[in-house]
Each structure stands twice: as structure tokens, then as C-alpha cells.
Specification:
2 domains, about 210 residues, homodimer, Tetracycline Repressor, domain 2, about 0% strand, Arc Repressor Mutant, subunit A, DNA-binding, mainly alpha
Chain lengths: ~210, ~210
DNA sequence: GCTTGCCTGGACCATGTGGTCCTAAGCACC
DNA sequence: GGTGCTTAGGACCACATGGTCCAGGCAAGC
């Protein structure tokens, strides 16, 4: 994870510290938000000191940007595992169920690590915004690639547009996260994802292949 | 808008000042976010003074809570105008177009006034969270009421579930706002809303009544 | 017009927070 | 074991920011 930004020598110990900082920032900023998390919070939670924070990151903004990359990599890694071999509608349903289950563990709170940063950062840090935007695009591509495979395999009709379907599904997911977070209840997220899956289902070659859940 | 919170005497001038503060907070916090907006920013933008802020609001948290109500009322008022007489699918399309057009004016930036506060506040201020949640519920009810009218009028099939459809549409809207904000481009919001409308359309009695746009 | 109490201006304060810096310890390589 | 780097600890600073306070203005009811 920790990519040395410059050509400085860096030791294993240094890398470990940097990761500890990022991991703590990740944890704290997910529940409190980016702006509401102080460097002292992070320093304390990561068992480091001020000088180490500023040794590894130029300033808070740089730390946040690193966190954006860190989370992006985490999410994409997780999603790649779940979507890489997607070839059937039931695979999508399994993917949906995993996300819902994970979110239900904390009653809809916190939401998506990427989505929660987006609204806070996108009008404040152009660089973070574009990184987030690219991560969303990569995520959607994982989905649309799967849909392409389904279409090529004859499961989806030719007039299905994998890119648009993926965007719609991602919007339903993010909107579902948001409503679930507001309600402190996963239900709206389920409804939203089911709507998106139902929409994809309407492009299946034999429409009643399998139930949504 | 300005509801006096206690039984204090309050003059027209006082109400005007209070509204000016709320209006400035509304404007600033929409683009910078809640936590990133300072009271001094608000004081300056509203042409008031510190003592007036604290005369009308106990502290920043109370101001934010008042803003949640203020925005909620604004959004519901706007949405009521657009949804109150909804009786047809083309009405939904017009509603969609209005939202998209409004958002496209600033290239997808800022997003929904309610959604943008949600992720920042819901894990930080329980009272604000529940107020937001209720506002979303009321907003969804405006939609589902319209869908109910469509169903009663014989336009929607009996097996259509207005509440779930409304939740799905709201999630698509909010997710669309979020992706549009990240991309600084309305396109994903359009795709998301079209997906939700297409889904609703699939419950129309005569499915090909009219095109989506 | 005078008293009452809301309304307003703005100086002032305490503290949280991002950021700096100096010193020393660890480590790798010679 | 010496040299020069990285890693670490933590005191320290400047300042933004939330919050207080008081003196005076203004409006409304008597």
C-alpha cells in the first residue's frame, strides 16, 4: 500500500508506521468525517507522534489525498475479488447480498468509504475529487466488464448497455448507502439495489431466470 | 421560515436577521460543507455580528440543526410544487428533467442540499440525522402519493409497490447527485434517474405509453 | 416620552488545531 | 565503531475559531 512518494530511502519500520497512520485515519475519518477528525486523534489512535505524521505526509491535505488512494485501493481490491469472475445474474445477487450484509452489521451507519468522502471533498480539493471520480469509474468498469461477459455469453440481450447499467447500479448503491445512513437502517439500500438488479434483469435473455434474492 | 424557538418577544427586524443568517449559512455550507464553514464566514456573508448569531442560535450545532429544518422545508416546498399533482408518467419525466436541468447549471457540483449534509452529520449529530431521515421520508411520500394516484387511476399495475418504487427513485436521485458531484458532470445523474424511471415504467399498464425523455 | 427588553456591534477570550523544530535513538553500510 | 541517513518523541508556536460580554440602539406599549 505505502508507495514512497519520493526517492528517499525508506525502511520497513517506516513503511509500517506510515501504514499505521493511514489505517488509523481510515478508521477515524470513516465514522467522524474528514474535517471533524483532527491530526491529534490520528496521532493518538496510530500510536505515533506529530513529527512522524509530518515526516510521512506534507500536511493534512496530503494525508487526506493519500487516504483517498488508500481507500480506493482497498475498495477496488475487495470489489475485484467479488466481481472479477462475474458471469451470471446470480453472481450479481451474491455481490448484492455481501454488500448488504456488510452494511447491516452497523445498521446502515458510516456508508461507503468512497461515497462518504466524496461530498465532503469534491468541492474542496480538486485533486481528491478527480481521484475519487476515477476510482468510481474503475469500480463501475469492474461491473460493466462483468455485464459485458454476460452479454457476450448470451445471457444479456444485445441492446443492453453495460456501461449505463453499471452507472445505474453504482448510483443505486451509493444512494442506498446514503439513505441507509440517514435512516440507520439497511432497508432502503436493499430496495435500491433490488431496483437496479431488477432493471438489469429486464435485459436478461430469458427474463425469469432466477429470483432476485 | 423562522420559527421562534421559545416564547420570547421577537420583532420583524429580528426575524429578518435570523433569516439572513440562515440564508447565508445555507449558501456557504452547500458549497463548503458544514464543518468547513466557520461562523465568521457566516457572519460576514450575512452582514451580521457575532452577538446576533448567538442571540438567535445557542451555538453552532443549533444553527446547523436550524439549517437542516430550513433546507428540509425549502426542498419539500419545491418538491411539493412539482409532485403534488403528479398523475402520469410524463409528469415524472418532467420532474426528472427539472432536477437534471437545475443540477446541470453547476455541472453536477454541490449536489442535493439534504444529501450533502447527511453523510457529514448523520454520524455526528443524532438529532440532525433523525430530522434528515424524516425529511427524506416526507419527500419519498410525495413521490409515493403520486404513484398511488397513478395506480388508483389505472396507470400502474396493482402489483406495483409505490413505497418501494419511491425509495428506489430517491436512492437513484441521491446516488446520481453523488456521482455527478464526483464527476462534475450531470451525466451519471441522468443515467441513474432514467434507470429508476424505466423501472417504474415497467409497472405501467401499457408499457410503451411514452418515451423516457 | 419613558421604561422595558429585544436587537445590534464589536472587542475580547480560551482553546483546539495544524504545523514547526530540536534532540536523540535506531539502523545500514562501510 | 564511525558516518550519515531514517525514524521517533514531544515541546512548542501561531492562529483560526467557537464562544462570551458589555455597552448602546431601537421599537413598542403604557
Amino acid at each position: 500500500m505505502a508507495a514512497p512518494t519520493n526517492r528517499r530511502r525508506i525502511s520497513q519500520r517506516g513503511i509500517a508506521t506510515r501504514d499505521r497512520i493511514l489505517e488509523a485515519a481510515n478508521r477515524l475519518m470513516l465514522v467522524r468525517g474528514v474535517n471533524a477528525t483532527t491530526l491529534d486523534d490520528i496521532r493518538e489512535a496510530s500510536q505515533t507522534s506529530k513529527s512522524q505524521l509530518y515526516h510521512h505526509f506534507a500536511d493534512k491535505q496530503e494525508l487526506v489525498r493519500a487516504l483517498v488512494r488508500y481507500r480506493g485501493a482497498l475498495v477496488l481490491q475487495r470489489e475485484r475479488a467479488g466481481l472479477e469472475r462475474l458471469r451470471s445474474f446470480s453472481g450479481l445477487v451474491r455481490w448484492r447480498n455481501a454488500l448488504v450484509q456488510a452494511n447491516s452489521l452497523n445498521n446502515g451507519k458510516y456508508g461507503c468509504g468512497l461515497g462518504s468522502m466524496t461530498l465532503e471533498l469534491s468541492d474542496q480539493d480538486e485533486q481528491a475529487r478527480s481521484a475519487l471520480s476515477e476510482t468510481f469509474a474503475a469500480w463501475e468498469r469492474l461491473i460493466s466488464d462483468g455485464l459485458h461477459r454476460m452479454r457476450d455469453g448470451g445471457l444479456l440481450r444485445q441492446d443492453a448497455d453495460p456501461e449505463k447499467l453499471a452507472t445505474g447500479l453504482m448510483a443505486a448503491l451509493q444512494g442506498g448507502y446514503l439513505l441507509a445512513n440517514a435512516a440507520h437502517d439497511v432497508a432502503p439500500m436493499e430496495v435500491a439495489l433490488d431496483m437496479a438488479l431488477e432493471h438489469i434483469k429486464s435485459f436478461l435473455v430469458q427474463p425469469s431466470e432466477e429470483p432476485t434474492r
